[in-house]
Each structure stands twice: as C-alpha cells, then as structure tokens.
Specification:
Length: about 80
C-alpha cells in the first residue's frame, strides 16, 4: 500500500515493470518527482514484498512520472 493513499502502488500506477535481470527481480518504480520524501519508504516496501513472496532480494529502479502519471495519484 502507498503510505499516503488508500491504494496499492499498482493501483497508483507506480509499478511500471517487473523483470528478471541476471537472475534477480528488478522492479521499476515511477515517482512524481525524483526527490519525493517517501522514495526510500516505497523502495523498502517493494523490497520487503518481493523478499516475502519469492525469497529473493529485489533491485528497484526509479523513474520520474510524466504529467499524466501524476494525475493518477490524486486522492
């Protein structure tokens, strides 16, 4: 769940991709701006979920949302 919204990161359209690269899960996370204060919290949420589900350590790649993506974050 997103810590500030009553939605999952997927419902907020923040999870853009989940891939396996070099036998490691890689999740692409889109944030409204690159220095969003809760970025590290979001990364830890993702890593924890992946570890709990798969037992694997995930890598999280960050990208900035475009204006259309930011509209999906409205409460």
């Amino acid at each position: 769940m997103h810590p500030e919204f009553d939605k999952s990161l997927t419902e907020c359209n923040m999870i853009r991709a989940v891939e396996i690269k070099n036998d490691k899960p890689v999740v692409t996370l889109a944030v409204p701006f690159l220095h969003v204060p809760i970025k590290n919290d979001l990364i830890q949420i993702i890593k924890s979920k992946v570890k709990n589900k798969t037992g694997l350590e995930a890598e999280v790649e960050i990208k900035e949302m475009n204006e259309e993506g930011k509209k999906g974050l409205e409460k």
